[in-house]
């Protein structure tokens, strides 16, 4: 019997396998974006804000559901309302503030470091286009904003089913919710992120960008009101954050939600709002592509 | 040239009134290619065009036969780039970001972690790979940049001043690593202002000046000369006399002689003269023009 | 009288048992040496203490212990002596929004130069930045920044100049010009201390080197003399010949040859005495009818000397 020995070269290995598709690369960028925003694979303190905001977003829902279910258990189903205290449409009003804060912080966190630290050079040398990068980044933001909006809604939905005692009935009796809630979440995303992304495209500091965005969101409200009063009512379109309220109002057919906002006060139709938001999104997209083409 | 890895035809690029590249025609074979030129001579512009990051004003460029302007993604899937400046997010670990870089280059995630680990070990960052890139020193960042450039197994790597900021040991390691890249099946374009580094690692040189191609040939051809250089230990006079008597032309500087003679075996002649005169030999060899001499001559020609 | 190569006979900068620590970390440890007119190369691995030493010599940091004398003055008694000193730091310590000329003139004014505009013009011309001096520094390439920094350090006509990686970013022609400039400054009697990692270039600039490792003085003096001081490391010489083994085995008969190695048909010999080998080789080759095409000492370069200093063999 012969004895054999061999050494294996632990040096560099060439990769001869199959290369992934461009779609897979885009998803990689999306995942990286999600991790970056949520502070995953990073220091613990990066997780405080995003996860804290998630908690704030879902807490009222949990409290509401928990309270009523508990009451039902204690006092019996007859004594307790079989509908939730906070309705789905009402809840958007709560979520809305949280998503505003979230977008204010997440959009800059997503876009600015890559630019400021010149990571775009790495992206630029890889087989992906500027559009791939931007779509993937915005995609990460989309996923998270949707999660923020939908998670508490899901809790309310499930809670409602438990309270009513009749799951199937709950579902069939609330079919409208199945389109209203997702569309409402998309409306919030569309109305909140365009400006945030534009600001993040040329401000150099994350905190600064977040601050500008929040300030802008607050200021445009009274300014739009004043301008609408003083001259054309169409100036009401400038109140950036009111659009989401108007659209939620229309989607859930509950005029009270947006009644005191400039848009409703100036009788701006929700469709005008949709057009405005869409135009803003297209403008943001064009602006971002032009800006990033020069950098990559 | 059959297997040119890089080719350019009438390549020109202007930025407004500045002509960055002008009518560049070249073909470069696989191997280790030095890219040399003044600041603003067009090196960075050429690299960016090859990576498909910039469109030429005129002409075309191909990498592995793929047109860089029409199919930039095709080029980039086979090329790695090590930029000169910073390019890392400070809050990610080296392992994490290099693994991500691999995925961006088209590697499946099942492979990317393992390859990131291997490549970081190769560049000497095995122990630091779980630390944040923001904490890395300049030398460590250089190594990480190289890791990022080769992790996705490219066929060609473009290196922009790879030894910048490294101390002598680090430079030695980096230059040795660059030499080994061709053993790993990669061609290398090494752009640097330190000509001695280029002479040490490259076998082909592309020289640019004010946007025009000055030289594009094997290093050996650039260095070739018909002179023999001898450095002696003592007074060279007897040697010089013996050589000139035999009809050689000799130029002397201190103890260094440069000897030219047609139709003669200078090596044997010099050996014999040294043996006869008893003058000690310090060094002997075919004279090699330094890249610096060639570069300076070219620069002054165009100044 | 000191005869150690760490000291020069006409020093302009002297340090005696100089130390600097930052908390627990000792950056410079008990350094004693001096510098004089001419160019001295300052070498060492990263973290050896070179930058800390230069900063102390320029008065930017106080020593923790020890003595520093600049132009026969104790800087702690007379801070003004630093007006005769110029420092070109490695980092980008320039103002982006100023033009090159403004930056240099500003430096001249700060240094109390009598005619700042004229001094600035002179300094800018010396580094070859006349054409670009009117442009803002933020548009400068790395090499241009480096040169304008040198101009900024030259503007007060310093007797002593510290240069930390001065060629960083400069292209090959600019490098040659800068080295020429440093040589002419040194020939004017100035003291230049250049710290650089590109040893091949330090060789072209400096006739004397000071090497630091871990904050301590590891070697000083002329590079070939330092090499000779490694008496236990024989010289390595490469020999290309048509019949290398024949020559190799003949060489082994001579006691001056320590070892002979044949790698890819090329002879590498180790010898204790380059001179003896140099006198032996032509005769031996002729007697054996061996054709020599290359004889090259392999470890005389500053890079090799440095490697021995830091790593032993």
In short:
The complex is a heterotrimer of chains A (296), B (303) and C (313). With 296 residues, chain A is an all-alpha fold.
When the domains of chain A are counted, the total is 1
Oligomerization category of the chains in this entry:
heterotrimer
Helix vs. strand class of chain A: mainly alpha
Alpha-carbon distance between the two ends of chain A:
62 Å
Total strand segments of chain C: 13
Provide a descriptive summary of the structure in words.
The complex is a heterotrimer of chains A (296), B (303) and C (313). With 296 residues, chain A is mostly helical. Chain A has one domain. Helices cover 73% and strands 0% of the residues of chain A. Chain A is globular, with a radius of gyration of 24 Å. In chain B, strand 7, helix 6 (168-181) and strand 8 form a beta-alpha-beta unit. The two termini of chain B are 32 Å apart. Chain C is an alpha/beta fold. Helix content of chain C is 34%, strand content 27%. Chain C is built from 10 helices and 13 strands. In chain C, strand 8 and strand 9 (216-221) form a beta hairpin. The model of chain C has no long low-confidence stretch (mean pLDDT 91). Chains in contact: A-B, B-C. The interface between A and B is large, with 36 and 41 residues.
């Amino acid at each position: 019997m012969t004895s054999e020995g061999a050494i294996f070269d632990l040096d560099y290995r060439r990769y001869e396998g199959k290369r992934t598709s461009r779609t897979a690369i885009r998803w990689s960028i999306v995942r990286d974006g999600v991790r970056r925003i949520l502070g995953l694979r990073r220091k613990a303190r990066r997780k405080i804000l995003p996860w804290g905001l998630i908690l704030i977003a879902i807490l009222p829902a949990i409290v509401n559901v928990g309270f009523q279910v508990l009451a039902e258990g204690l006092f019996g189903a007859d004594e307790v309302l079989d509908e939730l205290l906070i309705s789905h449409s009402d809840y958007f009003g709560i979520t809305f503030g949280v998503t505003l804060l979230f977008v204010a912080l997440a959009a800059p966190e997503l876009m600015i470091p890559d630019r400021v630290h010149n990571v775009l050079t790495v992206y630029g040398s890889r087989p992906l286009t500027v559009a791939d990068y931007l779509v993937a980044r915005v995609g990460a933001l989309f996923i998270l904003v949707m999660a923020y909006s939908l998670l508490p809604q899901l809790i309310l939905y499930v809670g409602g089913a438990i309270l009513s005692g009749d799951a199937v009935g709950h579902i069939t009796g609330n079919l409208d919710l199945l389109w209203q809630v997702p569309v409402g979440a998309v409306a919030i995303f569309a109305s909140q992120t365009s400006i945030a992304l534009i600001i993040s495209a040329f401000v150099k500091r994350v905190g600064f960008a977040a601050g500008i965005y929040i300030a802008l969101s607050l200021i445009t409200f009274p300014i739009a009101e004043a301008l609408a009063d003083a001259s054309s009512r169409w100036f009401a379109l400038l109140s950036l954050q009111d659009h989401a309220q108007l659209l939620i109002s229309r989607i859930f057919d509950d005029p009270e939600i947006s009644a005191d906002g400039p848009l409703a006060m100036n009788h701006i139709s929700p469709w005008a709002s949709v057009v405005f938001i869409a135009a803003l999104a297209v403008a943001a997209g064009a602006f971002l592509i032009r800006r990033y083409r020069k950098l990559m | 040239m059959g297997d040119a890895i890089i080719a350019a035809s009438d390549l020109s690029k202007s930025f407004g009134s500045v002509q960055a590249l002008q009518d560049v025609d070249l073909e470069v074979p696989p191997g280790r290619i030095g890219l040399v030129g003044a600041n603003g001579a067009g090196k960075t512009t050429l690299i960016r065009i090859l990576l498909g990051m910039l469109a030429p004003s005129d002409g075309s460029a191909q990498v592995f036969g793929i047109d860089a302007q029409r199919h930039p993604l095709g080029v980039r899937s086979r090329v790695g780039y090590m930029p000169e400046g910073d390019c890392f997010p400070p809050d990610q670990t080296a392992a994490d970001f290099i693994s991500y870089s691999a995925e961006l280059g088209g590697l499946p995630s099942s492979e990317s972690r393992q390859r990131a680990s291997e490549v970081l070990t190769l560049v000497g960052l095995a122990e630091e790979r779980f630390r944040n890139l923001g904490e890395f020193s300049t030398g460590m960042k250089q190594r990480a940049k190289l890791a990022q450039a080769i992790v996705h197994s490219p066929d060609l790597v473009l290196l922009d001043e790879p030894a910048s900021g490294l101390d002598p040991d680090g430079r030695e390691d980096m230059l040795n690593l660059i030499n080994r890249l061709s053993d790993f099946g990669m061609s290398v374009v090494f752009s640097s202002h330190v000509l001695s580094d280029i002479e040490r690692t490259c076998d082909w040189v592309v020289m640019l000046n004010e946007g025009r191609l000055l030289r594009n040939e094997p290093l050996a051809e650039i260095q070739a000369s018909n002179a023999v250089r001898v450095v002696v230990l003592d007074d060279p006079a007897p040697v010089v006399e013996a050589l000139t008597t035999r009809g050689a032309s000799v130029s002397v500087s201190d103890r260094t002689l440069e000897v030219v003679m047609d139709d003669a075996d200078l090596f044997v002649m010099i050996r014999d003269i040294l043996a006869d005169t008893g003058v000690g030999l310090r060094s002997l060899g075919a004279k090699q023009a330094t890249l610096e001499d060639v570069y300076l001559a070219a620069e002054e020609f165009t100044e | 009288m000191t005869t150690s190569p760490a000291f020069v006979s006409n020093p302009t900068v002297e340090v005696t048992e100089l130390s600097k620590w930052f908390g627990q970390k000792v950056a410079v440890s008990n350094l004693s040496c001096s510098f004089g007119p001419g160019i001295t190369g300052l070498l060492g691995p990263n973290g050896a203490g070179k930058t800390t030493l230069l900063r102390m010599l320029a008065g930017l940091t106080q020593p923790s212990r020890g003595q520093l004398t600049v132009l026969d003055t104790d800087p702690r008694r007379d801070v003004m002596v630093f007006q005769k000193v110029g420092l070109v730091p490695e980092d980008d310590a320039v103002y982006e929004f100023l033009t090159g000329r403004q930056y240099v003139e500003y430096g001249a004014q700060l240094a109390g130069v009598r005619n700042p505009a004229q001094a600035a013009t002179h300094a800018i011309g010396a580094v070859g930045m006349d054409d670009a001096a009117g442009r803002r520094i933020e548009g400068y390439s790395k090499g241009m920044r480096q040169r304008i920094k040198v101009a900024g350090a030259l503007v007060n006509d310093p007797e002593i100049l510290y240069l930390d990686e001065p060629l960083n970013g400069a292209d090959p022609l600019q490098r040659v010009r800068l080295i020429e400039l440093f040589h002419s400054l040194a020939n004017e009697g100035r003291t230049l201390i250049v710290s650089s990692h590109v040893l091949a270039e330090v060789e072209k600039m400096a006739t004397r080197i000071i090497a630091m490792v871990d904050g301590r003085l590891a070697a000083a003096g002329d590079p070939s003399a330092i090499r000779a001081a490694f008496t236990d490391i024989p010289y390595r010489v490469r020999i290309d010949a048509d019949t290398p083994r024949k020559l190799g085995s003949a060489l082994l008969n001579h006691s001056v040859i320590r070892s002979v190695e044949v790698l890819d048909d090329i002879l590498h010999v180790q010898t204790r005495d380059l001179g003896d080998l140099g006198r032996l080789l032509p005769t031996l080759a002729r007697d054996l009818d061996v054709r020599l095409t290359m004889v090259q000492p392999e470890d005389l370069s500053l890079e090799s000397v440095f490697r021995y200093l830091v790593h032993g063999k």
